[in-house]
Amino acid sequence: MKTLDFNKLLRRGVAEIISEQELIKLLESGKPLRLKQGFDPSRPDIHLGHVVGLRKLRQFQELGHHVILIVGDWTAQIGDPSGVSATRTMLSAEEVKANARTYMEQFFKVIDKDKTEVRWQSDWFGKFNLADVIRLTSRFTVAQFLAREDFHNRYAAGKPIAITELLYPLLQAYDSVEIDADVEFGGVDQKFNCLVGRELQGMLGKPQQQVFLMPLLVGTDGVHKKSKSQGNYEGVTDPPNDMYGKIMSIPDTLILSYFELLTDEVDEELEKFREQMNKCEINPMVLKKRLARDIVQQFHGREGAMQAEEHFTTVFQRRQKPEEMAECVVIAEALSDALYRVDLVTMLLDRGIAKSKAEVKRLLAQGAIEIEGKKVDTALVDVPDGAVAKVGKRGFLRMTIKQTRS
What we know:
The protein is an alpha/beta fold. It is 46% helix and 16% strand. Strands 10-9-12-13-7-8-11 form a seven-stranded mixed beta sheet. It has a six-stranded mixed beta sheet with strand order 1-6-5-2-3-4, sandwiched between helices. Helix 10 packs across helix 11 (191-203), helix 12 (240-248) packs across helix 15 and helix 13 packs across helix 15 (284-317). The model has no long low-confidence stretch (mean pLDDT 85).
């Protein structure tokens, strides 16, 4: 491999490698490596935070290495305790399977399907009996697991830790044993779990996997890592306009890390961006648009990216209504020949724009809903046929009234 390849592979977008020298030896051997990354389908979608690791796997694939994606259909039912401060709610097997179906479609938006093997934990854990579980738990002590920061903090604070949560790292570790992983990939919050896998392989007389850790991508709020529960993420299936708009909403301080972790922009160009920003020689908006265009193009093509940029410029910079917008047929009570009473709760729930009545109430309280350019704070509004509603940053709707009588 060329030095340049090593720099891109082992330096850019990498937090830590354990052990880097051992991994370099494996790479120099010319042997196709078995690369493991696990995903728990605890939610139905993946977001740009997941894409950081998937892009790194794609780089390894392009060098001839073999990716094995582990669908954590067993561990997802427990919930990964990494970084959480409370016991997670367990999911049912049916919920996990439903989420996994959408995961399968989304993985291959980034990695090469033809160079990827997908394995389900149930392939081996479905055959486990109580004796197998006891043998697995005998390999480690409770003290070892309580040394982990999140467990330690919860234990010190008197917060509950379920026995199932202690099993989680063991199950993830056994995945590495089962598939003979050479390298396991994960975010820095997965370091403990990955090292348990490395140690368990050694205990069972197998070559120990290398651990390849990526930094966590900070969410659009500029504070927390990307998370469904935080609502600070961009989903890989988001429509172009939504994805573009969310990226444009990130704080300026995240622009360079997003370029580094989510694009192929060369390092020299990133250094120039950094210098320009430090010297205030460039408007961050210019770089942010370039970033948003690049990322949207990865998932929606050049045409989708250009259309999303035009939409953003029209709606958010020029404050104009877009020429094209979604049509929404609304059943409404006629108040007169030209005015109708619309229930925004029903309209937004039926369109799937809001998930619950409580969410609609929050949007109204935040002043995030406008009708014909004016903010509204009540669910029942009187509008003419063809009125335009704007809901937060989610876009515009033109209401076509289907009349009903009171």
